[in-house]
Structures are given as structure tokens and as C-alpha cells.
Amino acid sequence: MTALIFDCDGVLADTERHGHLPAFNQTFEEFGLPVRWTEEEYGRKLAIGGGKERMRSLLTPEFVAAAGLPSDPEKQAEAVAAWHRRKTEIYTAMVAAGKLPPRPGIARITEEAYAADWLLAVASTSAEPSVRAVLEHAVGPRRARDFTVLAGDIVPKKKPAPDIYLLALDRLGVGPDVAVVVEDSGNGLAAARGAGIACVVTVNGYTADEDFTGAAFVVDSLGEPGADPITVLANDSRATPGDYVTLADLAAVCVERDT
Prior knowledge:
Number of helices: 11
Number of strands: 7
Strand content: 5-15%
């Protein structure tokens, strides 16, 4: 069996700039917190894996005092958890309203992989309700049921640690030589490589300038037949993506690792 494992944010949909960022800022406003992240600031926060972890990074002594938060770490953790629950509600409502369209090629590649009896999974550091909402919108509720979804706090260490991809291999019952990951960030690539899995990268506006050394190939999108051709930014594999990425391109990456 071959396994296709997607990251969620930035891969299934362009969620960071148009989804997570406004959801974070609306949450901050609702809770009366003295912070609003700009697009540039949020870009830096993306180096931190996980939404709660990004929120927790705010808890400097100066911020705690300005926000009137308790000094007790346990009470602070409760506050962060409440912020994150509300942020997840805002974000999933945005997804359900169709405000975050799927990235090109996701539904097509998924259908091709399913027809070829590939195993399907999503491995993300985002909260599980958010991931499931994006997945269902990207591939449809019926096909989403065929995915193994691994998300949120399911592992102790988040990307760039390899934990979530090691768990994905275990849950799917496959070795790293017969799996391929689709990621969009350097952290995700490092996590996949740490688990020994070949990784294809589809960049987005936040990650286009990151170092993707070690990726099988790097493209600006998976693309669609009849649409504008994709741009292949780097290729260190036997795959030969043309106007769009095909399942054969992903299979070539797996075959290369297997041999």
C-alpha cells in the first residue's frame, strides 16, 4: 500500500493569511487582549507549531500585566485554552461559510489516489475540528471519511519534530519508503524528513522564501488541467511534473525511495 499524507494549513487551503490570522485577531478583540497581529508578525509566529503555542508565546511578563492576566501558570494555561477554543469556533465558521477555497489540485489528486487504493491521511498541528472542517471543504464530506486525521495535541512534540509523521506511519501501518507527504513549510519538510518520508512541497505566500533543501520537488501549486501551468521551483527526484502535478509524479517519488 502507498500512503499520501497531507499537511492541512497552506496545503489543503490557503488558510493562514485569510483564515487563522483574522480568527486570532477577532479572538484577541473579543477577550480584550492588547494585541493585533499584522500579516508580517503572524508570518514570524508561523515558526511556532500549533495555535495554542502561538498564543502562549504572548505571555511575557509585560503582556500578562497589560492584559490583567493572573500570574499563576495554571490559570494562564486555562486562559490560553479558552482563547484557543473561541478561535477554533471562529475559524471553523469561516471554513463552513466557504471563505477559504481549497488549493488547486487537492480534490483531483485525492480522487486519483483513492481510485488507486492509496491510503489517505492528514497530519497537522492545528486543532482537529479546524482540520476536519478544512478537509471536508477541500475534498467533500464523503471522501473526507476515507482519511485518517491526526491533528492538534495528539503528539507531545509538534513540527518540526517528526512525531506526527511517525504516528501517521504507525496508524496507517506502512513504512516510510511507501509514503509521500505534501507540505508547504520548512517546519513541515523537516518533520517529514525526520520520519524518513519523502516530501513534496507546495509553497504559499508565507513560505515561498523558505529553505526546502531535501524536498523531492517544490512547486507553487499542484495545479489543474486546463488552468495556468504550475511553476516547478526545484526538482531533486525522478518525477517530471508538467503543467500540473499528477499521481504518477507522487508515485515516482515513492518508487525512488523504495529503490
